[in-house]
Specification:
Blueprint lengths: L2 H13 L2 H8 L3 H15 L4 E4 L2 E4 L1 H27 L5 E7 L6 H10 L3 E7 L2 H9 L5 E4 L8 E15 L10 E2 L8 E5 L4 H12 L5 E6 L5 H6 L5 E4 L11 E5 L5 E9 L6 H12 L7
Parallel strand pairs: 3-4, 3-5, 7-11, 8-9
Antiparallel strand pairs: 1-2, 5-12, 6-10, 6-11, 6-12
Helix pairs in contact: 1-2, 1-3, 1-4
């Protein structure tokens, strides 16, 4: 058993598809299949249930993957720690975020102060972030939702009010504050499940015994404002978006005290954070006011 076999196994387990894993690894699919077969021969059990090129982890593979992720994660941590010890000033930090619109200004300033550090960004939902952290695919996450896990550590960096956006011709447009009850039957524009915007929308309505009538849902929060401006519905808008709000969107406060979001930074407390990742974490905490939406 060697590291190459373990890396290959990890990729196949992630994709549960031979061709896609081979494409990621940039190897021929037959070669990948042979490597996995040899690994299974060495272990004496099959790791996948197979249906053509589609494969699915079985109970042996699931148990083996937990150990492989841990072992390879430790090796990756060791490599990063050694690099730090020899005084390398350059590095890479991988960040997952629900929306990339929160980060441009912050990253621009970070780049000015730390030009040798490369930042890789991934847009992801909260459930996927938990997976990314578990597999050590990212160093940390910027999220507005809590990510479950006893190995995780987080720090709150921004707390803001979440407002209600309505078209200017809407009957509520001249109100300063409005209750969730008043929104019963209104067409709601939001994001798909998995994003903080949808989670908060569902939670606020559920607290009043209501179900939102969702007429449009997508992957990017930035689409909510122009759709409201077009008169297609109403929806939640973070207060930090106020400066960039479309002029044809009226913003109202909600009476619910839960109409807010907390932006937090999350990382694994049992994983080694490189010097680059530590610099980024400290920078975000110190410059949280730069964060937009």
């Amino acid at each position: 058993m060697d590291l190459l076999q373990l890396r290959y196994f990890q990729a196949v387990a992630r994709h549960e598809h031979m061709s896609r894993a081979a494409e990621e690894l940039r190897v021929a699919q037959p070669s990948l299949s042979r490597t996995i077969a040899r690994l299974e021969d060495e272990l004496g059990v099959p790791l996948f249930d197979r249906q053509g090129r589609r494969v699915q982890l079985n109970r042996f593979g699931t148990a083996f993957l937990r150990r492989v992720d841990r072992a390879l994660g430790e090796l990756d941590d060791a490599r990063r720690e050694v690099a730090d010890l020899v005084g390398l000033e350059h590095g890479t930090v991988a960040i997952a975020a629900e929306t990339l619109l929160s980060l441009p200004d912050l990253l621009a300033r970070f780049h000015v102060e730390h030009p040798g550090v490369a930042v890789r960004l991934y847009q992801s939902t909260a459930p996927r972030m938990a997976e990314h952290l578990a597999r050590r695919q990212v160093d940390m996450c910027v999220t507005s939702q809590r990510i479950a896990g006893d190995r995780l550590q987080s720090v709150d960096v921004v707390r803001e009010e979440v407002l209600l956006g309505v078209p200017p011709t809407h009957p509520l447009a001249n109100e300063r504050r409005v209750s969730i009850d008043a929104l019963a039957g209104e067409p709601i524009i939001t994001t798909r499940p998995g994003y903080w915007h949808r989670e908060l929308t569902d939670r606020l309505f559920a607290a009043e015994g209501l179900t939102p009538i969702i007429v449009m849902e997508g992957d990017e929060l930035s689409a909510v404002q122009p759709l409201i401006s077009a008169g297609l519905g109403i929806g939640l808008i973070p207060a930090m978006s106020r400066a960039g709000t479309y002029p044809t969107v009226a913003l109202l406060s909600l009476t619910s005290p839960d109409s807010c979001r907390t932006l937090r930074l999350v990382w694994r407390k049992d994983a080694y954070l490189s010097a680059a990742a530590r610099r980024f974490r400290d920078f975000v905490v110190q410059h949280s006011a730069i964060l937009g939406t």
